[in-house]
Amino acid sequence: MQITQGTFSYLPPLTDEQITAQIQYSIDNSWSVQVEFTDDPHPRNVYWDMWGLPMFELEDAAGALDEVNRCREAYPNHYIRVTAYDASRGRQTTALQFIVHRPAEEPGFRLERQESHDRALRYTLHSYAAEQPHGQRYHNGSGDGG
Amino acid sequence: MASPEAPEAPEAPPTGPGMREDLQEKASTYGRVEVDERFADLDDPLAEVPDDAEADLGSVINDSRVQEVLDRLDRELVGLVEVKRRVAEIAALLLIDRVRRTMGLESEAPTLHMSFTGNPGTGKTTVAQRMGEVLHKLGYVRRGHLVTVSRDDLVGQYVGHTAPKTREVLKRAMGGVLFIDEAYHLYRVDNERDYGQETVEMLLQVMENQRSDLVVIMAGYADRMNRFFSDVPGLSSRIGHHIDFPDFEVDELMGIGQLMVAQQNYRFSPDAEKAFQDYLSRRMEQPRFANGRSVRNALDRLRMRHANRLWEAASEEQGRKVTKSDLVTIQAEDVMKSRVFEGGEDTDEDTDGAESR
Predict the structure, then answer these.
(1) B124-137 and B66-76 helices cross at what angle (nearest 10)?
(2) Together in a domain, B11 and B101
(3) pTM above 0.90, yes or no
């Protein structure tokens, strides 16, 4: 199951060329670009780990793509996304955010039903990968730490 | 300056008079080169496109607007004939490459890393700036901005500090020109644990693998750069163009001075011009003469003396008016007050001293 979230979630995975074009678009809008990664891709998990600092002084997307590639190398079995922040209103607002890398195998989620009062049902998502401790999920390759 | 049309392009006939008229029409079809359509999608162009296939070289040259940049370079930089010729040659090569590509004649992008050697104030930074512009117009670099750094920006203070710092700078320079001033400071022969080594290795790698992403220009004094190149094997060969910036002659310095004066909306009186020429030839003999930079500093001092003269005249005589011509004209006496004329030394740093006489 392929997990999708963020901008362009309806599209097939972006190629490097398309990623570069999106980053360049962000830079041209003076948004600062940031690379983040996680192995807990639950849609409500907003706390992804930062890969380095946001890149504030870029002129060209090649530098950011380098960082994406370095992150891919270090965390081949994590989800990696690029976030563009728009600071023009005086606060860091996410203007654009898309996944640029995903583990080769994604076990996905199951739906959990909880019997509640008066025969009411509560639903929640359970990530198969998240059964493993942090850093050992999606380990068809190196079990690198997070 | 050598015209970019001059190098032989085997697939293009020499531009004739008819072609020039043609250009005006083609101005709208930007950058397009006429290739016979029958041959457009064949696999082996060298064999399949006939040798007499035509490309409209003139219109490519016109459309790239590189001539404008080169003309401006010619106009605004005095002297530096060799340097300008080299810039024009690089421009020609890139343009012809572009035309060749429209015919399917692929060739590897040339190595455009450069080293600028010369004494202080000979225009290395200025040319580097223009180089970014030229390369951008020719589509060799994507953005064409200049990032100027020295050792402090690249080399860290402790273990593990250097690589992120260097990478940060490289990232910023991507798509443009990275100008490393006094590059020889990166490598210290006497200390093999110096972190500069790490920077040099990263630079070498990027210069080799990411040639399309950025152009590295290293600058510094000729003798120390040569020593640097012999200390770091593999660096010299990755630099395609070694350009030497000669010292300026008096006439050239005078030309620079006049350009600067005009840019700042001043002018020399005829006497002041003679005096300034005299000043320059004396100043050149003195130590720590920094070519164009010394001219700029001398002019700053002239402006101060000029302002001071007007001030004093005004305070001596109440109600005195200044005319526009007073405000604009630098007189001979402003120049003659320099210490140089009294056998003293004029330094670039000490502006107060020059005023006190």
Answers:
(1) 170
(2) yes
(3) no
User: What phi, psi does A126 have (nearest 5°)?
Assistant: -120, 120
Q: How many domains would you assign to chain B? A: 3
Please name the residue of chain A whose CA is at the shortest distance from the CA of residue B213: A62
Task: Report yes or no: A58 at the B interface, CB cutoff 8 Å.
Answer: yes
Domain hosting B305: range is: 250-356
- If asked whether residues B136 and B237 sit together in one domain, one would say yes
| Domain carrying residue A37 | 16-101
Nearest residue of A to residue B144, measured between CA atoms: A59
Q: Which of B107, B141, B168 is the last residue of a domain?
A: B107
Domain of A39, CATH number, reads 3.30.190.10
Compute the distance between CA of residue B196 and CA of residue B186 in angstroms, rounded to an integer.
5
Task: Give B176's contacts in chain A (Cβ within 8 Å).
Answer: 59-60
Mind telling me how many Å the CA of A53 is from chain B's nearest CA? 10
pLDDT digits (tens), chain A, 146 positions: 888 899 999 999 999 999 999 999 999 999 999 999 999 888 888 899 999 889 988 889 999 999 999 999 999 999 999 999 999 988 889 999 999 999 988 888 999 999 999 999 999 999 888 888 888 888 754 444 44
DSSP A70-115: HHHHH-TTSEEEEEEEE-TTSS-EEEEEEEEE--S----EEEEEEE
Specify the number of domains making up chain A: 1
- Among partner residues A59, A64, A67, which is closest to B145 by beta-carbon distance? A59
